[in-house]
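re: ur question from earlier - yeah i can do the single chain one, its not a big deal. heres the input i used so u can compare w yours
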Amino acid sequence: MGDSAIHAVAGSVGGCISMGLTYPLVNLSTRAAVQSKQEELSIAKAIKKTWKDEGLSGLYSGLSSSLLGIVVTNGVYYGFYEEARSVLLKRRAKTSTASPQALTTAEGIIAGLIAGSITTLATNPIWTVQTAQSTHAVVVPKTSGESDEAPNGEAKKIRLSAVDAASQILKKDGVKGFWRGIGPALVLVINPVIQYTTFERLVGLLLSYRLSRGLTSTGKRPTGRSALSDWDLFILGAASKLVATGITYPYIVVKSRLQAATHKYKSSVAAVLHILKTEGVNGLYAGLLPKLIQSMLTAAFLFVAQRRIFEMVKLVRHSA
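and the output i got, formated as tokens:
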């Protein structure tokens, strides 16, 4: 198993761990993004309301398809990204004075676009199903001796399973329905490009600074990512994701609405213009706070988990 394949495995497992830890925030952000003119709720109030209306399962609706999505997404993305990164570093290793362990900005963009485009095309159906699970519910029919109302007086609802959500999409829109929102999803390839380019730049700056000081926080000469501590990866991962999500969030809202099919927009541009007209700028940033917190924590945990899992798999491989 080559390093790119190990990175793919580590990214998939690390992604599952980080997604599991932060999923309620993913769910709340998605719901807020697809609702227009929704009641403004704090994160705490949104969690309390969801718990009251739907129970614990409501906070984790769509988790199964999200875990599948993150396994495939991270596996494909990290595999192609690390392979592209390795090729680009080898090509200029003998001809450039740039750091041999960090990509230049242009190289980071190229690697990210390649990996992101392939990943988006392959995984969009999974995320369409996840969005449907997170935002759609069905009324539970009344049975003998049971009330058809929830404790708060509203009709009882249950969240769709992944199979049910997929069946509804297929019945309503056919196979093409699984690629709803592919336009903004491809535009959002720029999100991981921004994230990883920012991450590489921060890594380069940190290593250059520590090189000038002689030692890293681990007490070793700075020779690349291996010289970074878990805390370094946590902070740099969170910071890079904050930048990426903050820049691209309006298109995340558009993609979520198109995938949920809660609004009949003719195109991504039409969606942006309609949201601005009916909801103002705030509509393009619905659910931003939980998304920022979730994205930062997910990225931070992911970078740490991925490094540790990568090292563990390599150790097992070498000792086998």
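The two ends are 12 Å apart (CA to CA). not sure if urs matches, ping me
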